[in-house]
Amino acid sequence: SVQGDDLVCDLRATFDGDEMLLVSEYNGSVGTGQVTVKPERSVKAEDIVGKWKLDMTTDDGNHREPVVEFSINENKRLTATIRGEDGDIEVTSVRIEKNEINIVAESEYDGVTVKSTFSGRPYGSNWNGKMGYDYNGVTGETPFKAKRLEADGK
């Protein structure tokens, strides 16, 4: 009740994948109306800790499956390690912004520094996004799909 009067509410929730929409229609002495809410769960560092296997095909047709491992260090900061077919890739930055994971990494190929960026929003055990690269001024972007690996790495 509101101020001693009954307030009747009808709450409906609809789901579309990971998205939810709440609609509440109310009627009472305060009047009638409708309130719509679209909640969005924030991505937290604890949500992504563990190993993720990426699956992508680069612009030149090479299929790659690097593994990204996220952890929280002793200073409670999110860190990441990328292990590719050619060895580890140095991660220079990892952060969560606007519910997306953003990683900046650098490696070397034929004596030239390659800067890579990985970004996308995780949903449960799936993480889809894009990998951007800059190789000596040649830039590009390729989509990736990632799955969280089980504790035993499978």
Can you describe what's shown?
The chain is an all-beta fold and 154 residues long. It is built from one helix and twelve strands, in the order E-E-E-H-E-E-E-E-E-E-E-E-E. It has one helix at 45-48; strands at residues 7-16, 19-28, 31-37, 50-57, 63-64, 67-72, 78-84, 87-97, 100-109, 112-123, 126-135, 138-148. A hairpin with a 2-residue loop joins strand 10 and strand 11 (126-135). The radius of gyration is 22 Å and the shape is elongated. The model has no long low-confidence stretch (mean pLDDT 89).
Biggest sheet, spatial arrangement of strands? 4-6-7-8-9-10-11-12
Distance between the termini: 54 Å
Q: Tell me, what's the shape?
A: elongated
Q: Structural class per helix/strand content?
A: mainly beta
Q: What percentage of residues falls in helices of 4 or more residues?
A: under 10%
Summed up, what is this model?
With 154 residues, the protein is mainly beta. It is built from one helix and twelve strands; from the N terminus they run E-E-E-H-E-E-E-E-E-E-E-E-E.
Topology:
Elements: E1 7-16, E2 19-28, E3 31-37, H1 45-48, E4 50-57, E5 63-64, E6 67-72, E7 78-84, E8 87-97, E9 100-109, E10 112-123, E11 126-135, E12 138-148
Antiparallel strand pairs: 1-2, 2-3, 4-5, 4-6, 4-12, 6-7, 7-8, 8-9, 9-10, 10-11, 11-12
